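Can anyone check this?
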Amino acid sequence: MPNEFLMPKLGLTMEEGTILQWLVADGTPVRPGMAVMLIETDKVESEVEASESGRLHRIGAEGDTFACGEVVGLLLAEGETAPSGSGSAATVEHPAGTSDLSVAAAAGVLVPAGGDGSRRFVSPNARRLAAERNIDLLTVRGSGPGGRVVSDDLDDMPVPGIAAAGVNAPPPASAASASAASAPAPAPAPAAAWRSSTGSSLTPATTSARQLADLLGVDLQAVPPDPHDGYVTREAVARYVRGRLQQPEAAAPASATTSAVAVASQTPTAVRRLSGMRGTIAKRMHASLHEMAQLTLMMDADMGAVVADRERRRSAGAGLVPAYTDYVIAAVAQAIRLHPGVNAQVTADGIAELPEIHVGLAVALAEGLVVPVVRNADRLNLDEIAAATSRLAGAARAGQLTLDDLEGGTFSVSSLGMFGVDGFTPVINPPNAAILGVGRIRDDLALVDGTVTTRTRLTLSLTWDHRVFDGAPAAAFCAAIVELLAQPSA
């Protein structure tokens, strides 16, 4: 039986990876520790090594995105045959007297209804869900690589004992309808034959097609299905949308709603996919706002002492001069020591206060945002923090950050001061409980002892999770940062 070559999970927050480049040609023998492919996660690019020996059979193509744990290739042993076409498993030898279906289920593959001897993968979770829901996997069309059946493919399948409209369909209104609902559900049929319990058409489509259609507001009934099996594919939805964009004034098909597709008000100059780093940022920030009780307060800090300290360092020619953000990070780390409840996160067991202080620094890139981490920032002096942030920012812009540079942050600092921004509402980087926004350095007029003078200030914007601590502790923490900035340490 071939060994599966999987998309790895390189960090706690990694959900999927994109194959940037195969480093080994298809059919090449590989050995443990040999770099096989280059992938891109939401944070870094990384080489993936083989953990077993075998002859590589590639399933995923460069540019394809897979969830962690999904099969992207196979490692074939001596004498094993590569799968035909784009299939996903080699021929598997099994003892005489055992059925193809039982051996396939144990091996994680499935004999298709055609009975031609070819096999396709079924993920372990999909097999478990199919058993729980009593769904015949022979009737399921896989949307994974090489036709692999994944758990999402079961979501749209009729479940025996439940109306074809889905598990959330209302209970039968009569004994006759109850009897009909308890009968085994038929295998998927072409689009014209699918009807829900309410009588409306339920177009058979792959999960990825449904997801894309939901995202773009497309009525699946308007999309031409595959002529061979009657299913609407993701590619068919994409073709339909491209056609509508090319003819924005064309009338909608009779079977579609009047606003089946959200057409751009003008012909776009470019369309950027919400995927990769941009897509991950979108998902994480939406989840952050959805799952946390986030509030923001703003407080001005007097930066006169910081400005004077920087000028003194610059005049002395003492090497690397700390940036204003470095002073803020140093003050944040010391303020967290005074207010340890800020260095926390919500877990299944409750609010976990963390012993080590690792401050993340948001760095803007052309393709998105990364947050490399200054580890144990409370144990570093200002010069060491400046050296760390300089290295991390340079590595981020050169695409050379490692996972160790990006994992484990317990608090984040984000600055928009260089863009002339005073205050803003930063969004917490999960699983942290707070984030500090840093505005621009500015000169304000101030009345001191009856005399008008100037003060150099910046605005700090603290967003915190109200589930973890309340407004008064948040204000006290921010005030501690202000006090520490007024007396910068060496």
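Reply from J.R.: I decoded it. Confidence is low (pLDDT under 50) at residues 85-120, 161-201, 248-261.
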